[in-house]
Amino acid sequence: MSDAPGSPEIVVELRDVRRHYVMGDQVVRALDGIDFKVERGSYWAIMGPSGSGKSTLLNVLGCLDRPTSGAYFLGDVDVSQLGDDRLSEVRGERLGFIFQSFQLIPQLTVLENVEVPLFYQGVASHLARERAATVLEKVGLGDRQKHRPTELSGGQQQRAAVARALVNQPLVLLADEPTGNLDSKTAKEILDLFDELHEQGRTIILVTHDPLVASRAEWVLRVLDGKVHQVERGGRVARLVMPMEPGA
């Protein structure tokens, strides 16, 4: 899906996306008209204060929540129109998730953890093992495949989580505070890995509260009160969305 011949491929597009919740007699406008485009191979950080809507935005991007209104295109598919079963399939095929708490299964080896997404896609076991082993080599865990998560350092666990997110060759990598549980040295190693993935052409969207983490991204989307407040590129404001004056 692209805007014109020869233009960059748009892999994520939100058009006037709103997510409202009814709480008693109050309507909470968690997302209140978000327009957002992501080109293939770009690297985005989403920032905003607590309650700004950034977590809700990540849930919508990750197909974990549905917009109340508006359209969300993931590649060429408007996922806001899909039923639950097809939505689950698209989520497994097109998205890779990286979480702050790693979310590895402690009873499984690192290799088995990385194979899990392929199991749900019905990939043959020998092919799944081969692909999992290959991606573990790429993130520097080739010699840790038979270890269990509790036998790894925090940085190694997060590398395993990155490998699991990559194994299905997703259209987009989504990361939620991926360095939040790591010390500064290990966090830098993980961010260096993200830089490498970006250089390889991966599309990355992460949510963070840390300006140092956001500074590693190519683009920064700042969310405030459920709206896009401003967009930055290379540390400079690329687009400032000013709030409307009362009565405007």
Summarize this structure as a short list of keywords or feature phrases:
Rossmann fold; disordered C terminus; 248 residues; alpha/beta; 11 strands
What does this structure look like?
With about 250 residues, the protein is of the alpha/beta class. It has one domain: 3-Layer(aba) Sandwich (Rossmann fold). The chain has helices at about 55-60, 85-95, 110-120, 125-140, 155-165, 185-200, 210-215; strands spanning about 10-25, 25-40, 45, 70-75, 75-80, 95-100, 170-175, 205, 220-225, 225-235, 235-240. The strands form two sheets. A seven-stranded mixed beta sheet has the order 6-7-8-3-9-10-11, with helices on both faces. Strands 2-1-4-5 form a four-stranded antiparallel beta sheet, with helices on one face. Helix 3 (about 110-120) runs parallel beside helix 5, helix 4 crosses helix 5 and helix 5 packs parallel to helix 6. The chain is globular, with a radius of gyration of 19 Å. The two termini are about 35 Å apart. Mean pLDDT is about 90; it is low at about 245-248.
CATH topology: Rossmann fold
Residue runs with pLDDT of under 50 for 5 or more positions? 244-248
List the domain count as a whole number. 1
Kindly report the average pLDDT value: 91
Give the overall shape: globular
Total strands: the figure is 11
- The chain-level structural class is alpha/beta
Helix proportion range? 25-40%
Distance between the termini: 34 Å
Largest sheet: 7 strands, mixed
Evaluate the radius of gyration: 19 Å
In what order do the strands lie side by side in the largest sheet? 6-7-8-3-9-10-11
Beta-strand percentage range = 25-35%
CATH architecture: 3-Layer(aba) Sandwich
What is the assigned CATH homologous superfamily? P-loop containing nucleotide triphosphate hydrolases
| Run of helices and strands | EEEHEEHEHHHEHEHEEE
CATH class label: Alpha Beta
Q: Please work out how many helical segments DSSP would assign.
A: 7
